[in-house]
Amino acid sequence: MKQPLPRFALLVASLLPVGMAPAQGAPLLHPMFQDHGVLQRDRPIPVYGRAAPGATVTVSLGQASVTATAGPDGHWQAALPALPAGGPFTLTASDGPHQQQAADIMIGDVYLCSGQSNMELPVQRALDTNREKTGAVHPHIRYLGIPHETAAVPGYQFSNPVRWQAVTPATVTDMSAVCYFFGREMRRQVDVPVGLINSAWGGSTIESWMPAEELARQPDYRAGLDMLARYARQDRAGLVQFVTTWQEWWRRTGQPGQPWRENLAQGQGWRPMPDTFRPWESWGVPEMAAYDGLVWMRAAVTLTAEQARQAVALRLGPVDDSDVTWVNGEPVGSINGPGTPRRYPLPARLLKAGENTVTLAVIDGYGDGGLYGSAAAQAIELADGTLIPLKLPFQYKPSPTDMAQTPRAPWGTVDGLSTIHNGMLASIGPYGLRAALWYQGESNAAQPVRYQALLGGLMAGWRRQFGADLPFLIVQLPEWGYPADHPMESNWARLRWSQRQAVDADANAALAVGLGGGDWYDIHPANKQVIARRLAQAARKLLRGEAVPASGPVPAAITRQGDSIQVRFTDIIGTLAALSYHRPVGFELCGDAPDSCRYADATLSGDTVTLAVGNGPAARVRYCWADSPICNLYDSARQPAGPFEGPAK
């Protein structure tokens, strides 16, 4: 799920460190509280910000008024009394000498939308964009987008400005399609103002969105979190620890030599790289036309003694996907961030008079890969801002490796440990929410079984910030890829099942089945309207307590009787139907071992599907079990039966 990223910002402390008071005249209110915002109705309203340590802050909204005292670090927080839906109001905060106001504040329902690119995908890329844009006149639906940001530790606020906007034809095209369409559906259900907060990042893993405390409860993450903590305290120590781990991995691959220590006259297999920096797939080199893997790149730069003393950073253009970079054999940086320009600080005395070598291991796992930009972007930066370009041409050497085992730095952009949470979620503060929407999983498909525990941990961690009763509406991944012609093991199917199991284990979560809304040829399907409608259906059950199924038909029992197996379904609106065929398709019978499944003939009667056992193993039943399955069991509300597996008893 790759798309260009605007920047990489690794913060090793909050914007205002603990103990530092805000400047005189600085805003009293947190950036979440500004003109055109929406506050959550029918529950106490948390309001917070910063002031001089010990200052008394008075906050008022309508007829309500409360006070709070700023702590030693300047933080203050108050709770306004619960209010019914309505507005507009003016929110006012004052510490005596200073006052700040936020006008046109509405009281309604606030939803947090988060995940990776299918949550981030804007309205302008969804179905029927022109009609959606023309009809987007919703003054009481307000939207706030969180800019991309990562941090090694939780931040207090955002480095880039945020602002609430009403939905209009001029503003809607860049808004998250799923988030906006869902908000529109919810306003149709309940006539109250709707606030939408979109905090999403394409290609991001679930680990990057989890708080460190919760991620530490999961296996295999403690070493990375320790490395991240070292990096936050002292960049070089954490970097050296990671690169040492990476170099040990390289040696275990059995690849020859230590390319990061070779000078330009050493090593076998090095070739001149095209001097126009573009994806290696476009070089015109047959071997690289569809290459995914690791490519070594290196160049030299000649410096005077004075330039070597003044050097402060290595600048590289955007790299796709990730890199590990050395200068003169010493590590200087590593980021996983497709399209993100690199600027790596250089330790003192690393450079020397004469020739210096810059070496990169560039790793790409999907789509285009390489070092982008222009030759001018690859340079040594001096303290006075002067750039000393690296010599051209670069040299390169492909080195095929097992990509699944390549270590990734825990401070990466889209795959760091807690880094997006720290920069884009913790920075929101304890804002009042009605529910959280989560559409993610594509970037975790390689480890589908683990996803169940990770999703449970994410929900638990977010509830510590936003309230223990925060409901979650989870989008189950839709289909993607060309359908198979035989049963197979599928990571995407297994991850969908992990999503279902995590939701079933949580009394305050509901699932929206994505199947039927996907695209064989596009991992970013355009039909975001159907996903929003299914999320709104789940919200009717979870948020409003209506006596309706949350996510379509689900199996209630799987029983064997002689030469047949019956699967009885529940949570049906109207009746079950097999669409476009006279019987259900997509059912499989399996043995206990992997790769033991076979397609099964099925018949439908009422709420029960009957499978003919025939010859072969039949210990388990699977349905819709493929990356891109073809399944046709729906109820009268056009809700599909989702994928499942279970023993036949």
Short précis:
This protein has 649 residues and is an alpha+beta fold.
Question: Count of DSSP E strands?
Answer: 36
Could you please say which CATH topology of the domain at 222-402 applies here? Answer: Jelly Rolls
Q: What portion of the residues fall into strands of 2 or more residues?
A: 25-35%
CATH architecture of the domain at 222-402: Sandwich
Helix content: 10-25%
- What structural class do the secondary elements suggest? alpha+beta
Mean pLDDT: 92
Q: Could you give me the name of the CATH homologous superfamily of the domain at 222-402?
A: Galactose-binding domain-like
N- to C-terminal separation? Answer: 40 Å
CATH class of the domain at 222-402: Mainly Beta
Task: Using the CA coordinates, give the radius of gyration.
Answer: 27 Å
Describe the structure.
- This protein is of the alpha+beta class and 649 residues long.
- Among the domains are: 181 residues, Jelly Rolls, CATH 2.60.120; 94 residues.
- It contains eleven helices and 36 strands.
- The strands form eight sheets. Strands 2, 4, 5, 7, 8, 9, 11, 12, 24, 25 and 26 form an eleven-stranded mixed sheet that branches. It has a six-stranded antiparallel sheet with strand order 13-23-14-19-16-17.
- A hairpin with a 7-residue loop joins strand 30 and strand 31.
- The longest helix has 18 residues.
- The chain is globular and about 85 Å long.
- The N terminus is likely disordered.
What are its keywords?
globular; single chain; about 30% strand; alpha+beta; Jelly Rolls; 11-stranded mixed sheet; 6-stranded antiparallel sheet; about 650 residues; disordered N terminus
